[in-house]
Write a sequence for this structure.
């Protein structure tokens, strides 16, 4: 059996095959071959316990495409340099490093969430804003998420996606916000965090309960039921996961990734969801989706964060790790509601409280041997969710502690062999170092790994642990220190170079830094452990026991199924004796030592921390493997260490690339998909897409999008350089409206530090298809701008805010000056502790709740020099307390004293801040007073501050003409266009300035490029007509002339055809002329000669016959015989025909067969033939089917002229003297006419196609003019100031209690003011300037109110009628609209209206069934529709949702203003 490079072989129903017999003993150096190990692993790889997992943060792992690198709004605060943005690694980089991960031996990767994120520091992926979309910052041109999944599978590996069920970003999630309605979308999309925060604090704007409304978890909330109903952090909002709207949305979103081929989910923050909710909704549906997709091994495991070693976390089973591995009692599932949130909320609380008793929790023996025997597992109560083993993880300060913790807790898991086990992660380290990456030392790491890879559970390694990456560094401090100083630093530096992998742990062609990484002690140890695990099934999924075993870390494991019986004894870091074991031959997989056991006892001699013996019993199903690994630093028999590295190896490279099309034609703002296929199978499938001119068309992963009219080329290229091109033509799209300009409401702005102001951008025309804009600040350290245009001043200086239109690159700018707020209180901190970053957290302890300057750890302080840091506290605040900190270390709570504003960390005392403590700047100078640059040239200016030891040497740079030359925040000048500008550098301290005069020279004139493409000489020989491609560049105009013909202008890439009227043997001159950019004339002349055609003396005449192969034979043969019975193409079956692109089969034969009475039969030489007896008559150029010769089509083309009418437009004229809603026709319209010429193609007399050739307007249409009244009645004006209530309970008296946005009563104290009744309902008149007011309708007699007690009042909309639920609609239609009523003859609960007009049919309310109507208090339905429908001759139909009942049954009713319709038509 041979192995395929890069793939695993699965041989069903076969025992492992070995290419050699290994009879191991203590001297034996024979080692199990890679081929045999691969076959053994493939044959027994049946579920996820067979995997080992490499866990990584995608953005911090490897940067495969720097073009998608991105900084967040918090990168500056974190002091991440431009070279190390938080969004750095990507899918392309991960694909590039799959060989590295596979070389270590890992068979699965677990990646952090891939969904679209939105927060200040979202590089980790846990702040989702769209669960249905992959975040574009991971993707590259040609590399999307599907590409990554396919690449992982091509390596024989699996991919685990991190998913979140219980929370979103603190902007919510787009689809769920949409489900929640307009009030939620408005509330949660606010740029003001306290406004958004109200959603989860008290439910403001969230009537459908998309989010929990119970505030934030704090203190003990994390350790009780509140953990499942409160929001866990201020950077994310908690979802109401018991709401069917929510969990069904999430399930549908995550099914998408299952369908893409993801192999498993790691579920985040599981402790904050009820086990009942998971087992009733998420888990069965997602598992079912995977199985429906053909993946029966799909695995989900959860993070149940329980800090500590106890089985029951805080004595609360419902939030403990093992609890989630069990299914939920059927009695609870039976009471679950698919529609009612309240039922489910009560049920999960009851489920929590009913399971609080630690004494009646289930136990299991699924992980334990029965003596020495593997026994059948009982999974009848097993959840579809596995668990990260938090208790064992917490105990990995040393391996022995972790081992003992696992043994004590395992009976409480349904099956601990499924637990995911790691030492540390992106969140925590073990117990005594939980906030830093594990730093117990290399030997301790090796011992931990030896236990992880051989004991029960699925071993998982956090990226970089193989080289003790960032050991001892804080795991995560948010944006309070550079990522490079934390456990989430960028790992790419360790991976530079090359490694090629042919199978797990089989690799070679090493070079660069990655060679050192793979040879590191722990890397080599992990490679050996993966080899052992893959060779021994018992180490992957065997049950275990410590019965009859002496030794600190020693155990036995066995796994048995229909093909496998694997039994192993493991002793780690010390000797062990195994008693009562089966007799037989045992071979140590580490050293090859062989022991024959006859008395049921075996003693393993182990020396060295992390070293071990793995004695494998030779069984009939699974022979002992012999020695599996060579000596390493830790796993050794004491001999010489042999590094694992296969040296130089061969790699399967791409040899061919196919694309689905070679040319596309699209319109602006439309897209089309082109696919690429790499062969052979096993070669890297990765391709890169590029567009030659992205201003004409862009391409992403084969999706080509038209940008502007023109032609360009898209190129797709394999990893080894094979490429194909697609010619792209973009045509004008008349259906889009392009931006023509952009303006700002302000051109300049002056702000004090910490002040904000909203800029407004206006894109013209207002109805453009592309209103989107992008905001940017030239110096975000001075003034930053968010995606809405809100500018925030950060420090004194100047910055330019630029807004750019998405289409057309139109720009507008605002110059921002930031001045120091002299009224602010400045607090200083002397950083004697040398913290890398200093934060200040200030608050008002006298108020409740406590106002604070920022969420913990506060704001970053500004470094002034000499260890002094400062922060401004706004004058309108009343902060009296402050804590200085670096994110992990901090001062105690300090009282602020405005008289003593300098706090010394070393002496823990306050003192008066003296300006003498700071050495002032005296002057600044530049290294150059003037510069002369070419366009696009850059030059670095260097500023010198005097004195050199000044405390605050910070500078700001500006250009007086930034359109001529720009200057970066560090003084790099870049020339943009010709002209002059002045570069000014200003010191922050003292505002001292220095200037440099910059002159940008005109660009030199580029020489004209003129000629015929691919023509190196001035003579062109042709045989017949020929198409030439003309080239021109760097020219104002260009023309060509053939002979003495006229000069014709042309553009670059234009083609011309020559030789049509040129006689054989004669020539003609082609002259190209151009005018250069500096008005010089350039010409180029070619001589075109048509060659004489020499006919052969004896022409060979051939003809072709065709067979259309209707039965899709694999091969087709033609057998021919003449009138005398002679075989013309050989004996039966004759000659094999050739398949053409059209699908027909062809054969060339002498044309003389037409005169010989030849017959022909077609066959597949397998019993099929046509005809069955006498052959068909031979006809030259004939096309045959099974019934004989096919009749050729007769094709004719004609031109036809058709006269068509041009419909007239209707124009409206407003008349304020005529009542609103009244229309009068001032002049009738008249249709015009046009003549259209068509080219019509007929086949056999029947029209086959019609193509428009030209169109001429004969008569222009005359528009119809209609007068529209705009006069508003007194009643309408009054209604516009009222709020109405429908009074569905028929109260005798109705009162309205109204209060403003500050909570102050507007129309009196409770119960408010009695409402007045008219024909529309009960109303109260209010002031039109009441902004943000709310209203409560109530009856003092019955004590009933809407909304109910403890709920905020309904938001006021003047002129609207409210019901008791808060739903409301305008009493009268808005201007330009008319109200259409349907009298609901059938007592329907709901109704839709569908509208249509024109030819072709237009549907202004959308496709059938149209748009929902509103049900009024009288039980009838209404909808407000545009008055213009009356002029468009719109027809309307009323229909009942989810039925086929409609009125009328055929042609719709005519649309009339203020129309009232019973089922029979307009009243």
């Amino acid at each position: 059996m041979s192995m395929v490079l890069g793939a695993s072989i699965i041989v069903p129903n076969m025992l492992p095959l070995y290419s050699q017999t290994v009879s191991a003993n203590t001297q034996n150096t024979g080692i199990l071959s890679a081929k045999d190990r691969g076959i053994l692993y493939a044959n027994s790889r049946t579920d996820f316990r067979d995997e080992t997992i490499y866990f990584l943060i995608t953005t911090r792992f490897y940067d495969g495409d720097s073009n998608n690198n991105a900084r967040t709004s918090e990168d500056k605060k974190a002091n991440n340099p431009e070279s190390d943005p938080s969004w750095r690694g990507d899918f392309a980089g991960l694909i590039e490093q799959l060989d590295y991960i596979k070389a270590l031996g890992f068979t699965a990767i677990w990646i952090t969430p891939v969904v679209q994120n939105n927060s200040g520091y979202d590089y980790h992926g846990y702040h989702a804003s769209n669960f249905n979309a992959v975040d574009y910052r991971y993707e590259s041109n040609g590399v999307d998420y599907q590409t990554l999944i396919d690449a992982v599978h091509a390596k024989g590996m699996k991919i685990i996606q991190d998913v979140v069920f219980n929370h979103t970003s603190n902007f919510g999630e787009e689809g769920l916000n949409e489900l929640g309605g307009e009030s939620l979308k408005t509330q949660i999309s606010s740029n003001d965090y306290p406004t958004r925060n109200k959603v989860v604090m008290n439910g403001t704007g969230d009537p459908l309960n998309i989010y929990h409304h119970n505030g934030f978890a704090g203190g003990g909330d994390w350790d009780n039921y509140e953990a499942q109903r409160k929001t866990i952090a201020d950077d994310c909002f908690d979802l109401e996961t018991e709401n069917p709207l929510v969990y069904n949305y999430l399930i549908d979103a995550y099914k998408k990734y299952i369908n893409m081929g993801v192999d498993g989910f790691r579920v985040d923050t599981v402790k904050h969801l009820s086990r009942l909710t998971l087992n009733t909704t998420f888990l069965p549906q997602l598992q079912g989706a995977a199985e429906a997709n053909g993946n029966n091994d799909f695995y989900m495991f959860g993070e149940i964060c329980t800090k500590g070693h106890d089985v029951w976390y805080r004595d609360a089973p419902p939030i403990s790790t093992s609890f989630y591995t069990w299914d939920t009692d059927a009695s609870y599932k039976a009471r679950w509601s698919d529609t009612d949130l309240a039922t489910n909320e009560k049920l999960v609380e009851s489920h929590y409280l009913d399971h609080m008793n630690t004494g009646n929790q289930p136990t299991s023996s699924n992980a334990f041997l029965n003596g020495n025997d593997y026994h059948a597992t009982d999974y009848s109560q097993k959840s579809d969710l596995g668990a990260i083993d938090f208790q064992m993880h917490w105990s990995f300060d040393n391996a022995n502690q972790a081992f003992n913790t696992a043994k004590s807790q395992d009976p409480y898991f349904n099956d601990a062999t499924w637990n995911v086990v790691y030492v540390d992660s992106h969140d925590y380290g073990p117990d005594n170092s939980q906030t830093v990456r594990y730093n117990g030392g290399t030997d301790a790491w090796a011992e931990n790994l030896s236990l992880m890879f051989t004991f029960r559970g699925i071993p998982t390694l956090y990226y970089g642990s193989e080289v003790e990456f960032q050991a001892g560094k804080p795991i995560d401090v948010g944006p309070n220190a550079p990522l490079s100083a934390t456990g989430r630093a960028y790992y790419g530096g360790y991976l530079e170079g090359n490694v090629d992998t042919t199978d797990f742990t089989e690799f070679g062609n090493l070079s660069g830094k990655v060679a050192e990484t793979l040879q590191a002690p722990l890397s080599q140890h992990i490679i050996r452990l993966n080899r052992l695990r893959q060779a021994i099934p018992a180490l992957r999924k065997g049950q275990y026991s410590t019965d009859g075993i002496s030794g600190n870390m020693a155990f036995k494991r066995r796994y048995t199924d229909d093909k496998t019986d694997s039994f192993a004894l493991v002793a780690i870091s010390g000797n062990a004796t195994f008693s009562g074991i089966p007799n037989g031959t045992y071979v140590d997989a580490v050293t090859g030592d062989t022991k024959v056991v006859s008395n049921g006892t075996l003693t393993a001699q182990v020396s060295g921390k992390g070293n071990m013996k793995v004695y494998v019993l030779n069984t009939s199903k699974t022979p002992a493997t012999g020695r599996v690994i060579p000596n390493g630093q830790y796993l050794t028999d004491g001999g010489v260490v042999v590094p694992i590295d296969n040296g130089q190896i061969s790699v399967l490279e791409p040899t061919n690339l196919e694309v689905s099309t070679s040319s596309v034609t699209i319109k602006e703002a439309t897209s089309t998909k082109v696919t690429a296929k790499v062969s052979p199978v096993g070669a890297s499938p990765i391709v890169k897409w590029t567009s030659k001119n992205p201003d004409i068309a862009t391409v992403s992963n084969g999706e080509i999008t038209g940008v502007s009219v023109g032609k360009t080329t898209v190129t797709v290229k394999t990893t080894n350089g094979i490429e194909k091109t697609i010619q792209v033509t973009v045509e004008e799209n008349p259906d889009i409206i392009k931006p023509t300009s952009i303006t700002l409401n302000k051109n300049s702005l002056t702000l004090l530090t910490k002040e904000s102001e909203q800029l407004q951008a206006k894109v013209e025309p207002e109805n453009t298809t592309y209103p989107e804009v992008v905001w940017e600040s030239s110096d975000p350290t001075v003034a930053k701008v968010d995606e809405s245009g809100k500018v925030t001043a950060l420090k004194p200086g100047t910055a330019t805010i630029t807004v750019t239109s998405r289409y057309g690159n139109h720009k507008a700018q605002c110059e921002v000056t930031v001045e120091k707020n002299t009224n602010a209180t400045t607090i200083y901190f002397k950083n004697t502790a040398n913290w890398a970053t200093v934060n200040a957290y200030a608050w008002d302890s006298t108020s409740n709740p406590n106002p604070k300057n920022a969420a913990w750890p506060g704001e970053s302080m500004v470094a002034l020099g000499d260890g002094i840091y400062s922060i401004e506290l706004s004058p309108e605040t009343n902060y009296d307390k402050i804590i200085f900190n670096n994110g992990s270390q901090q001062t105690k709570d300090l009282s602020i004293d405005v008289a003593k504003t300098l706090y010394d960390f070393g002496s823990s005392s306050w003192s008066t801040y003296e300006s003498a403590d700071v050495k002032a700047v005296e002057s600044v100078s530049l290294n150059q007073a003037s510069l002369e640059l070419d366009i696009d040239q850059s030059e670095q200016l260097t500023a010198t501050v005097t004195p050199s030891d000044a405390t605050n040497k910070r500078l700001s740079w500006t250009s007086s003409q930034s359109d001529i030359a720009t200057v970066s925040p560090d003084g790099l000048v870049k020339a943009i266009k010709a002209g002059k500008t002045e570069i000014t550098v200003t010191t922050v301290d003292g505002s001292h300035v220095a200037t440099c005069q910059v002159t940008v020279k005109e660009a030199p004139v580029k020489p004209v490029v003129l000629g015929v493409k691919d023509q190196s000489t001035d003579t062109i020989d042709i045989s017949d007509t020929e198409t030439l491609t003309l080239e021109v560049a760097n020219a104002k105009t260009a023309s060509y002339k053939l002979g003495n013909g006229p000069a014709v202008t042309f553009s670059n890439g234009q083609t011309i055809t020559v030789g049509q009227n040129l006689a054989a043997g004669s020539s003609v001159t082609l002259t190209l002329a151009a005018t250069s950019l500096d008005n010089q004339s350039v010409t180029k002349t070619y001589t075109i000669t048509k060659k004489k055609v020499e006919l052969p003396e004896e022409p060979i005449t051939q003809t072709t016959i065709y067979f259309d192969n209707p039965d899709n034979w694999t091969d087709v043969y033609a057998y021919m015989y003449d009138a005398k019975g002679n075989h013309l193409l050989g004996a039966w079956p004759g000659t094999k025909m050739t398949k053409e692109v059209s699908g027909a089969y062809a054969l060339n034969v002498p044309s003389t067969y037409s005169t010989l009475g030849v017959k022909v039969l077609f066959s597949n030489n397998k019993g099929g033939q046509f005809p069955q007896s006498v052959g068909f008559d031979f006809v030259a150029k004939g096309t045959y089917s099974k019934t004989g010769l096919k009749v050729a089509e007769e094709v004719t083309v004609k031109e036809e002229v058709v006269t068509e009418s041009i419909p007239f437009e209707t124009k409206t004229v407003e008349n304020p003297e005529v009542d609103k809603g009244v229309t009068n026709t001032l002049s009738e319209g008249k249709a015009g006419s046009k003549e259209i010429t068509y080219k019509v193609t007929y086949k056999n007399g029947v029209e086959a196609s019609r193509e428009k050739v030209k169109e001429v307007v004969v008569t222009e249409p005359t528009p119809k003019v209609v007068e529209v009244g705009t006069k508003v009645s007194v009643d309408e004006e009054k209604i516009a100031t009222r709020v109405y209530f429908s009074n569905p309970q028929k109260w005798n008296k109705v009162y309205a209690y109204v209060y403003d946005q500050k909570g102050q009563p507007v129309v009196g104290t409770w119960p408010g003011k009695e409402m007045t009744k008219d024909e529309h309902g009960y109303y109260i008149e209010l002031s039109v300037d009441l902004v943000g007011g709310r209203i409560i309708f109530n009856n003092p007699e019955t004590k009933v109110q809407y909304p109910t007690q403890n709920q905020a009042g309904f938001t006021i909309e003047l002129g609207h009628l409210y019901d008791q639920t808060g739903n409301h609609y305008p009493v009268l239609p808005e201007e330009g609209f008319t109200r259409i009523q349907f009298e609901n003859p059938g007592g329907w609960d709901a109704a839709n209206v569908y509208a249509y007009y024109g030819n072709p049919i237009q549907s202004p309310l959308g496709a059938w069934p149209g748009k929902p109507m509103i049900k009024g208090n009288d039980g009838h339905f209404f909808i407000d529709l545009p008055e213009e429908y009356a002029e468009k001759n719109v027809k309307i139909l009323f229909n009942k949702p989810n039925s086929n009942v409609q009125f009328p049954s055929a042609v719709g009713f005519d649309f009339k203003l203020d129309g009232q319709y019973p089922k029979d038509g307009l009243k």
